Amino acid sequence: MSQPLIGISTYQEEARWGVWALPAALVPAGYPRLVQRSGGLPALLPPGDPDTAAATVARLDGLVIAGGADVQPARYGAEPHPRTGPPALDRDAWELALIEAALAARVPLLGICRGLQLLNVALGGTLVQHLDGHAGPPGVFDHHEVKPAPGTLLERTLPEPVSVPTYHHQAVDRLGSGLVASAYAEDGTIEALELPDAYGFALAVQWHPEAGDDPRVMDALVAAARGAAPGA
């Protein structure tokens, strides 16, 4: 079959190139490169009207919710912690709608960092708003080991403990409805979430595979998207 089309959510930020300084829809190049490396066709999805999320997801074979800003604490019934960053309200609304549409349509879904946190919030979970030890200096990824939980989709994808690129200061607190924790850091932080196989492919990781050299998580998404695509 043809390469599956994988949507990637994007930032909406002021950016500079050449003589221009304008609002831009952007995402680190590691995301589309990883999709391409795994055999998919990347399609960038800038923040849009949440009412169009279902129609957008219907055009896709798979969906990646990318990393980025802290989720607005009001989304999970909390007051902002002093260390919580400014919210990206349009992006929160758009990506939550994308997640809900993908789960409803059983379109294969991969959440990365913020994407894991949004999946948890979308299903009624809460977040720890600040923790130390999971990021390097500003703009620099740290690395630490994660261990997959036995019997999970993640363990089938990454059967051994792995060192991963990490850059986050928030994490899962209470699990959302139906979610299973499928990897942990040494300090007990949940590092991956998934829904049982009956929901289709729905996996999220707290680390940044697009910043490393291990494509297996994206390989799994693209393989699921290939199986779910028309004509597969």
TrEMBL record:
Recorded GO MF terms: gamma-glutamyl-gamma-aminobutyrate hydrolase activity; transferase activity
Name listed for the protein in its UniProt record: Glutamine amidotransferase
Keywords: Glutamine amidotransferase, Transferase
Recorded GO CC terms: cytosol
GO biological process terms on file: polyamine catabolic process
Pfam family for this entry, one: Peptidase_C26
Cleaved signal peptide residues: none
Organism this protein belongs to: Streptomyces chattanoogensis
Matching InterPro entries: Class_I_gatase-like, Peptidase_C26, PuuD-like
